[in-house]
Amino acid sequence: MKHQELAAPTWRTFHTLRPAQWLGLLVGLVMLSLLALPARAADPVDPPDRAGRLSELNGQVWIYATDSNEWIAATRNRPVTSGDRISTENDGRAEVRIGSSVLRIAPNTELEVQALDDSRVSVLLHSGSATARLRTREAANEFSLATEEGRFRANGTGNYRFDRVDDTTSATALNGQLTYEHEGTALPVQPGQRVEFWRERGVPQYVTADPKRDAFGDWVAQRDAREERSVSTRYVSPEMTGVEDLDRYGRWEQTTEYGPIWTPREVVPGWAPYRMGHWAWVHPWGWTWVDDAPWGFAPFHYGRWVYHRSAWCWTPGRYAARPVYAPALVAWVGGPNVSVSVSVGRAPNVGWFPLGPREVYVPGYRVSPRYVRNVNVTHVTNITTVNTTTIINNPAQFMAGTRYVNRGLPQAVTIVPAGVVERRQPVAPAFRPVNDRDLRDMNRDRPRA
Q: How far apart are CA 9 and CA 2, in angstroms?
């Protein structure tokens, strides 16, 4: 089919500005930035209310660690957020969940998450292939994917595929509709249609083509076919990232005291929440728990844990349409949040335990009172202005006055050498059972106001 040229933009572009105009623009931007500084300095910048999840990994997959500025092997359940870059090798495939939305990444692909916050999911596809499944109108409105050849926006719910090879981008609306945007032009990609875009002598070109089928597309279809109507979404929102695995690996029951609770079906002897996995530094939250279990995302970033009838059970709390993500819902003994050290043997150690129902999560990062209320709203509804002020300005004082239900359970507390956390090492091999003496030491060394 004969290809077509896209119409040129009608507005004046920056490269046509004269030097004097550039200077005026620069001065204006500087003045605006200076005027904005006091507001930014006065108000803490809350982290996003949500994060994505690396939910499936096949073969070799890499993620760029911004704290160490290097590519590291990706691990399942690592959170995904703004600035993350994911790369796959010949045998690699990856899946990223963001609430009910799914991004799937093909072999030999590099993808960058430009923005993942409360109102946007913006992705840059450097090379290779990726798909997006958007189940809600809100998710579709928030989503966009860009390549060097232009930007695509979803016009509604649907399944979409994007490929970039040899300076050519193709977009396929498997169902649903896309809009292609480039330098003031727009072109729809209709349901069932595939359109290729490239440039000739700087002029955008496009041609329609038949959708293609390959091994990656078959894998995506198989993954989608596995997902049936979820029992878990009777109790929690489908916008809770990680909820899709709970049906397969656990069971739900309704209780009078805690409301709905979920119990994992198979755990190893000595298992406790936040023990089988490792800590990672993820900006902007800081220390973040990455669990080893295939279901290990939602129960460690939302809700609380309770030891009920001789088993650990997860309680999500009150239903929230879009619950707020937290890096780890624990209370610390020593280490990141409080200046207390616990000695077990000779080495300095750090410990933690899962928060119980109706206990307040104290963020270890800079936040506003609004954030403190929202991140706790599913379990705590009576946080006052006085409480939020203490939590933000003096967390040790707040924690000293809190009686934590799981603090007194030897099976709840995990203590390891501090270097295990700092070096992002697996926790389980370094853990030893906590005895009553350790608990007495913890209570003696608890934070004081």
A: 22
Lowest model confidence (mean pLDDT) among 92-96, 299-303, 329-333, 407-411: 407-411
Cβ atoms of 35 and 96 closer than 8 Å: no
**Structural domains of the chain, count:** 2
- Is residue 260 situated within a structural domain? yes
What is the secondary structure of 274-341 as a DSSP string? T-SEEEEEETTTEEEEEESSTT-SHHHHSSEEEEETTEEEEE--S--SSPPP-S--EEEESSSS-S--
What burial letters (b/e) apply to 103-130, b meaning 16+ CB within 10 Å?
Answer: bbbbbebbbbbbbbbeeebbbbbebbbb
Q: Give helix 369-376 / helix 385-393 axis angle, nearest 10°.
A: 100
- Residue 386 sits in the same domain as residue 355: yes
Say if residue 153 is in the same domain as residue 279: no
Answer yes or no: is 231 within a domain. no
Range of 401's domain?
239-444
Q: Do residues 169 and 163 touch, judged by C-beta distance below 8 A?
A: yes
**Domain-terminating residue out of 225, 258, 279:** 225
- In angstroms, rounded to a whole number, what is the distance separating the alpha carbons of residues 242 and 96? 10
- Looking at the fold, whether 219 and 302 belong to one and the same domain comes out as no
Alpha-carbon distance of 80 to 91, in angstroms, equals 21
> Max Cα separation, the chain?
80
68-123 confidence digits (pLDDT tens) = 889 999 999 999 999 999 999 999 999 999 999 999 999 999 999 999 999 999 99
Per the CB < 8 A criterion, the answer to whether 314 and 299 are in contact is: yes
Which residues share a beta bridge with 277?
291
Structure pTM? Answer: 0.86
Spatial strand order in the sheet of 311-315: 250-255, 259-264, 311-315, 304-308
β-sheet bridge partners, residue 31: none
Specify if 234 maps to a domain. no
Cα separation of the two ends of the chain: 75
Q: How confident is the model at residue 354 (pLDDT cuts 50, 70, 90)?
A: very high
Measured in residues, the chain has a length of 449
Give exposure, 253-273, as e/b (b: 16+ Cβ within 10 Å).
eeeeebebbbbbeebeeeebb
- 49 and 9 together in one domain: yes
* pLDDT of res. 220: 96
34 neighbors 207 (Cβ within 8 angstroms):
no
**What is the rounded CA–CA span in Å between residue 85 and residue 110?**
7
